[in-house]
Design a protein that fits this description.
7-stranded mixed sheet; 15% strand; globular
């Protein structure tokens, strides 16, 4: 089946990013560009805590639709390590690899298993709030928290929301790889943001990694459909005898090492960053 040109272009962009050792590069093309006016109209006025009645109603319908999509996408998903969540009695930050627009449903599938769906949020790039269609509507109306370039918003809205959610024992998903790399199987070196907030607010990191396997069915884009296995590793706790920077760096390093170990076990191969689309991009063959 012929592969769509936009996915072929993205895979070429992934190849170039790896060759330049830039594992957090934007590889998707055509993402919305957020203007100053867009940011002032949508992001700066965004109700992150869903306190307004209209936003509560829209969240109810968005969550219902998202749960339906989650169940459909994850009908064959397996979870390994769910018991690692048993002793977490605080808020927590979940980290995971980021490879498609619905990979967050795998984490939602886990969240629904432990009955914390009401206490779950996702941090996303502000450009995602301007995506068209159903996906854009779902992003705007679920418990998603935009990460913005506006310093006032970050100080007065984003950070207080993160703090309050974690103090209320919520789980928050942060993609430390930052950018989505289409169907890329390997874990990528993480950026520090997730670990900064975990250390600052004294909550654990829940390291997760999703293995992607091909099925016999094909997507419209010419790639095989995927099924998933979610690996949940032991939580990483900050050490109160260390500084914020020490904790942030240590938690980041441990998380990456755990993801590396799980990747090597799940795929039965050593983690190396030589790019081969037939091996590294799910559904390519």
């Amino acid at each position: 089946m012929e592969k769509s040109q936009d996915r072929v272009t993205v895979i070429e962009n992934i190849k170039k990013a790896i060759e330049s050792n830039n594992f957090n590069a934007k590889v998707e093309e055509g993402d919305p560009i957020v203007s100053k006016e867009d940011r002032e109209t949508v992001i700066l006025n965004y109700d992150t805590k869903k306190t307004k009645l209209r936003n509560k109603v829209e969240y109810y319908f968005a969550k219902s639709l998202t749960d339906s999509i989650t169940n459909k996408v994850n009908k064959d998903t397996q979870i390994i390590g769910l018991e690692n969540l048993n002793n977490i009695n605080t808020g927590a930050i979940i980290t995971c690899n980021h490879f498609n627009k619905v990979d967050n449903t795998v984490i939602r599938f886990m969240i629904n298993k432990i009955h914390k769906a009401k206490d779950f949020g996702i941090i996303v790039q502000e450009s995602n709030f301007f995506m068209p269609g159903v996906i854009g509507w779902l992003i705007r109306n679920n418990k998603t928290i935009p990460l913005s370039l506006d310093h006032n918003y970050m100080s007065n809205n984003f950070i207080p929301t993160i703090k309050e959610m974690l103090e209320n024992k919520s789980f928050i998903l942060i993609y430390p790889e930052e950018e989505m790399w289409f169907n890329y199987k390997k874990p990528r070196p993480p950026k520090p943001g997730a670990y900064h907030y975990a250390a600052k607010y004294n909550v654990p990191i829940i390291p997760c990694f999703i293995k992607i396997e091909d099925t016999d069915e094909f997507e419209d884009n010419g790639f095989r459909k995927s099924k998933y296995t979610l690996y949940i590793m032991s939580p990483i706790y900050p050490d109160n005898t260390k500084t914020l920077k020490e904790n942030k760096d240590e938690m980041r390093n441990i998380d990456y090492e755990l993801k590396k170990q799980v990747y090597e076990k799940a795929y039965n191969k050593k983690l190396e960053y030589k790019f081969n689309p037939e091996e590294d991009i799910a559904g390519y063959k």
